[in-house]
Amino acid sequence: MLSQVLRFTFPAGSTISSTAFLKLRQQIAAAGAASQYYGYTTPTRVLSLPRKRHEVCWVIRNGGPDWPDERQDRSAVAEGLISTGITDATSLEFEFTEAQLEHLTKALDAPICEFACIRLRDDAPLEDEALQTSMHKTYSDTYQIPGFTGGYWAYALNTNETAGVPCSGPAPETIPKSHRRLGVYYLGWDSIELHEDGTQTAAFSEEIEKLQPYFGPGSGAFYTMLRQHK
Q1: Mind listing the pLDDT tens digit for each residue in 52-68?
Q2: How far apart are CA 156 and CA 94, in angstroms?
Q3: Dist. CA 28–CA 31, nearest whole Å
Q4: How many domains, in total, are found in the chain?
């Protein structure tokens, strides 16, 4: 299944509660999107990536039986955003299995959903088994931290840059698995403060310290308070 993480700002005078955005979500749901979550991103004191004021995060899960053409999905979302007056939207795309969905949903349903990004340097040895083990273990170790509710991670399919791909442009080719360098972790937290406390624990730092030499520009995180479209 495909998970799209979009970020954008509304035109002046419009907000996340606008009728136009509701109609867009309804349109995407009618087209076959399996689930949608949306909310404003929130500033934090720890490990934050740059964010725009009043920035919105919209997470769309595709892959349902009524939505077979994923290339067409992207076009429908991009055209819908533009018709709503949103011109700065960017997208990150990830592939997950059905078995991972339960973990992913725990992050999206949490009071705080963190999108932690590890952008591996261009010279990082992607074929190194120890490096890939640390990339996964930095996720699995998070279960030891109080306040963590669940989540999962994957490498981005459509870009190696944290800023994402502009939705207004043509859809890029899928990056081959052996060249993917942007790992993004969907992580659920009971509160921002519990997450901040967690960054001071050994469970957090053990693998991060091993990975730190490979961190490239764009490594960090952004945080959202999501609600599910129903």
Answers
A1: 999 999 999 986 544 44
A2: 5
A3: 5
A4: 1
pTM score, whole prediction: 0.93
CATH number at residue 192: 3.30.70.100
Residue 155 to residues 18, 56, 72, 139: CA-CA distances in angstroms? Answer: 33, 22, 22, 13
* Residues contacting 81, CB < 8 A, separation 6+: 6, 8, 24, 89, 167
Specify whether the CB–CB gap between 164 and 8 falls below 8 A: no
Tokens of 125: 């040895």
Residue 84: the pLDDT is: 92
Instruction: Work out the end-to-end distance of the chain between its first and last CA atoms, rounded to an integer number of angstroms.
Output: 20
Contacts of residue 167, defined as CB under 8 A and 6 or more positions apart, other chains included, come to 6, 8, 74, 77, 78, 81, 89, 90, 91
176-226 pLDDT tens trace = 999 999 999 999 999 999 999 999 999 999 999 999 999 999 999 999 999
Domain that holds residue 139: 2-228
Element (H, E) at 68: none
Query: Which residue type does 36 have?
Result: Q
Distances (CA, A) of 120 to 3, 131, 137: 21, 10, 16
Q: Which of 104, 208, 210 is nearest to 151 (CA)?
A: 104
Residue with tokens 């949490």: 110
